Amino acid sequence: MIDVRRLQLLRALDEHRTVAAAAEALGVTPSAVSQQLTALAKESEVPLVERNGRRFVLTGAGRVLVEHARVIFAELERARADLARCAEGTIGTARVGSFATGISNLVAPAVAGLRRTRPGWRFSVVQAEPEHSTELLRTGAIDIAVTMSSAHLPATGTPDLQIHPVMVEPLDAVLPYEHPLAAKPELELAEDLGDADWIMSAPGTAWFDSVSAACHQAGFQPRVAHTVDDFGAAFSLVAAGLGIAVVPRLAWNGLTVPLMVVRSIRRGPQRHILAATRTGADPEPLLTAMRQAADRVTVPSGQLILGA
């Protein structure tokens, strides 16, 4: 491995022609220059310098190495400048893992906006469900995990991770368009939906856990008629009149699904959307951009209609 600091001596010798002048330019002793140039020749395994009277001149190999040195030092200067810009937040890179609806409603619009406002930043996005994102974060596979309040959330005070709030997301009731409750602007969870056929995900998933916990707190056990893996399938079943669903707002935000209505739930269930980073890592500028995207998702309570 060639020592970059010795390349500086070789370049200085090429410019000043004498060991003494090179030493003076670099603020070292002539003996130090001679010793380091000898070591550089050993590293390179070819003669780099030859004496011409009182001066030194570079051999052909020495000139080749000096040309490479100029490129190397230019790249080092660019690296130092980029590091300074990183410290200022002007440029950077981040790998982001998020659950699917977080990508659609938070990460994608945030990254799209940052491409305009922070063109020096580069983001790589991967889908990572809450049960996997924490481990991906710890192993360095991702730099920011967009996750939610669930059993998979790291415990408070975990020393190697930091948690940053993004938004509080309501869960809304999704009903067939001709359902008797479709005209009601706001629903009660137990009173209005306790005796319905429910469409939910399988036990152990984040969606199931958040909805079932809210139902239990309201004093009933939902009658699950259909079990699905994704919200699109749930919406199709609802539109077909086969049951109701209570889903996170991010699941339906921005969609247009015919034959289906969405109603807010009075004092209804909520979940917290969070960004996790390794301790000491800075989640900006993505965190602020996701919070701004979240502001556009959170709509006032009241009558919400899809496909009307």
From TrEMBL:
Matches recorded under PROSITE patterns: HTH_LYSR (PS50931)
Record-level GO cellular component terms: protein-DNA complex
InterPro entries: ArsR-like_HTH, LysR_HTH_N, LysR_subst-bd, WH-like_DNA-bd_sf, WH_DNA-bd_sf
Keyword Repressor: no
Coiled-coil blocks: none
CDD domains from the UniProt entry: HTH_ARSR, PBP2_LTTR_like_6
Listed Gene3D superfamilies: Periplasmic binding protein-like II, Winged helix-like DNA-binding domain superfamily/Winged helix DNA-binding domain
Signal sequence segment: none
Record keywords, A-Z: DNA-binding, Transcription, Transcription regulation
Record family assignment: Belongs to the LysR transcriptional regulatory family.
Name of this chain's protein: LysR family transcriptional regulator
Naturally occurring in which organism (per UniProt): Thermobifida halotolerans
